Amino acid sequence: MTYAFTFDSSACSGCKACQEACKDKNNLPVGVMWRRVIEVSGGGWVQDGVAWTNNVFAYNLSIACNHCVHPKCAGVCPTDAYIHRADGIVYIDPDKCMGCGYCSWACPYNAPRYNPELGQMSKCNFCFDNIDAGLPPSCVAACPMRVLNFVSLTPTPLPQGEGQGVRVLWELPASEHPFPLPNNSRTEPHLMVKPHVAMGNDLEKKISNYEEIHPKHQKSEMPLVAFTLLVQMAVGAFWAAQWMTDSIFLIPYLLIGACLGLGGFFSFAHLGAKRNAWRSPFHLKKSWMSREILFVGLFSAGWLAGFILPEMKWITSLIGVGLIYSMAKVYQLRPMPAWDTWRTTAGFFITSALLGQVLMMNLLQSGGGGIVAPLLAAELGLILSAKPNARWTISRLRVGLIAAAMLGAGILPAVPNQLGIWPSLPILLLVVVEEVIGRKLFYTALDERAI
């Protein structure tokens, strides 16, 4: 037996009783909604000869977790906190969730929501306690128009009384799903929709209650920005030191370890339920975040072993390659098309090499501008060759910072070392700032998803 939600958009009044019943049943705090009623509208006045007519339209779409056939949230979770029942219901085990939020990145429907009171992710569980007791989900029971319902797919293939025209979304490609559902999902959502007539028109559609259904993240993502940049700097510095000197001096080596430790601290601080963090490396079969965490641990162990066994440093460098690759794969998600590209992987490797090279140039007081400039040029090429984004003003600031760093790298050989300063320090600062901007653009895009 498998369950699916059904929704008749053609008769929904938009009363939001389902939304409120869900919040009440699950005692959800302000800003956390498992079920959302999305208001879609469009159209306007159109001139036809001397007359003016309007083609204004509006419809509603009630959506929660779709308990997909292939739930991406469950696949990416590093602690394997998601349980996929035999009846298709997907829910979160609070004894495993560490509140990292990665499942919300991966879900095309943005169904998992961070609950700040629990410090964990939460989502619609299909009211499986009601289901097990022979009762309907609370949202279904609350709908006064009976447009929201649920159905068992066995033995009844379609909901009773729905008539023809019902779209069985898990049997249709995402490109045929109604707006505002994403057109790039492969999760096969367990949702049937009887469409409103306006769903099929070619007019521009927009979400009218965007602020209501899509509140901003309730915790800062800056610790993750710090984690990625510090770890990439540590790996890149380790690489740079291998060819810049026969043996890494103590202070640079300790600074590499400090970057690793500080990055790990910020990553740990970002978690809402830190007690479950120990589970994070154990979902290696599916989760790139688990693999990333494993490589961080291996790289840290290799760094530590390098104090005793210098020959381990080349093995550690190879582990660093796996670390940066797995880190890039964490960000390559289908719901984020701008990052789901080879540019993400290339950009992370360039960033690591760039940050590490400039850091070592400062610490070892050696040359290297001839390498920094091509790395900056490669990063600039990745940015300019990507599709334009809505935050182009901020991206131009980043481009300007990269150009300034390239200029600095070009004139660096002419700066005398007798001045008693680190001449490449301004380059390091420029690179760090532009990389922080790049990471922030990703999290801004997360907040600006359609649903």
The overall average pLDDT, rounded, is 88
> What can be said about the biggest beta sheet?
4 strands, mixed
Number of strands: 13
Spell out the CATH superfamily of the largest domain: Formate dehydrogenase/DMSO reductase domain
Tell me the fraction of residues in β-strands, as a range: 5-15%
Low-confidence stretches: none
Structural class: alpha+beta
Query: How many domains, in number, for the residues?
Result: 2
Task: Please give the count of helices.
Answer: 14
Q: Label the overall shape.
A: globular
Q: How would you describe this protein?
A:
With 451 residues, this protein is of the alpha+beta class. It folds into two domains: 3-213, Alpha-Beta Plaits (2-Layer Sandwich); 222-447, Formate dehydrogenase/DMSO reductase domain (Formate dehydrogenase/DMSO reductase fold), CATH 1.20.1630. Helices cover 44% and strands 12% of the residues. It has 14 helices and 13 strands. The chain has helices at residues 17-26, 72-76, 102-106, 128-132, 138-142, 210-213, 222-244, 250-270, 288-305, 312-331, 342-364, 369-385, 392-411, 425-447, and strands spanning 3-8, 36-42, 45-48, 51-54, 57-63, 82-84, 90-92, 113-115, 120-122, 148-152, 167-168, 191-194, 205-207. The strands form five sheets. A four-stranded mixed β-sheet has the order 10-1-12-11. Strands 5-2-13 form a three-stranded antiparallel β-sheet, with no helix packed on it. It is globular and about 75 Å long. The protein starts with a strand and ends with a helix.
